[in-house]
Design goal:
The chain is 9% helix and 10% strand. A hairpin with a 6-residue loop joins β1 and β2. Bound molecules: zinc ion (ZN) (6 copies).
């Protein structure tokens, strides 16, 4: 055999999400470019890519249909996995993809049968995981078995001064507590909010976190 035989003619590679290791490591695993397609460039900073903590590949938010700044800010706060690598947070296994639910706010995956209580079907519409469906101030948790769609959880993202960021995810409030937060009645350490009639509480002396 001649050596040349080993060098297969590289045929026109199909555009797949499969192994693209040989491409530029900084490029997006989907569009194979460092800068996103023009039509999405103004939605997020052009250099912003989400990196899978498992396969280490980069993803433009828009290329994986992340159009929500809260979601984009939130996935940067933990070891996010891309859809190829994602498993269930509870059992830590992949597989049973048709039973894998994704949280609409943080993109973590959960098997319907791993939830407590388990869900018999994938819920229609949006679904928030237990890490996202809780108010940091009053710790209000609704029965997750019930329909969470009716609840307006407020996810606070502080805008960033850097251009290359969508901001920093801070915390989640219930609708009621968010009103106090918006009126600056909150503890900057624990994010607990004050009721309206106690706004003379010194910021340095929060009775929620004992500081
Ligand atoms: Zn891309
Ligand atoms: Zn991955
Ligand atoms: Zn599971
Ligand atoms: Zn979540
Ligand atoms: Zn609350
Ligand atoms: Zn506090």
């Amino acid at each position: 055999m001649k050596d040349e035989d080993n060098e297969e003619h590289s045929e026109e590679k199909e555009e797949t999400d499969e192994h693209t290791e040989e491409t530029n490591g900084e490029a997006c695993a989907h569009c194979h470019h460092e800068t996103p397609p023009d039509e999405i460039a103004d939605k997020f900073p052009p250099d912003l890519m989400l990196t899978c903590s498992s396969c280490k590949r980069h993803h433009h938010p828009a290329c994986i249909e992340f159009d929500n700044p809260v979601l984009v800010a939130k996935v940067q706060t933990y070891d996010w996995h891309c859809s190829n690598c994602k498993g269930c947070l509870i059992c830590a296994k992949a597989g049973n993809d048709d039973k894998l639910l994704f949280c609409d706010t943080c993109d973590r995956g959960y098997h319907t049968f791993c939830l407590k209580p388990p869900l018999s079907n994938l819920p229609e519409g949006s679904w928030l995981c237990e890490l996202c469906a809780v108010c940091i101030s009053c710790k209000k948790k609704e029965d997750r078995h019930k329909n969470l769609r009716g609840l307006n959880w407020k996810h606070i993202v502080l805008p960033s001064e850097e251009k290359q960021s969508v901001g920093t995810y801070m915390c989640t409030y219930c609708e009621n507590c968010e009103k106090h937060f918006n009126a600056d009645r909150f503890c900057p350490l624990c994010f607990g909010v004050y009721e309206e009639d106690s706004d003379d509480i010194a910021m340095a002396c929060c009775d929620k976190c004992d500081r």
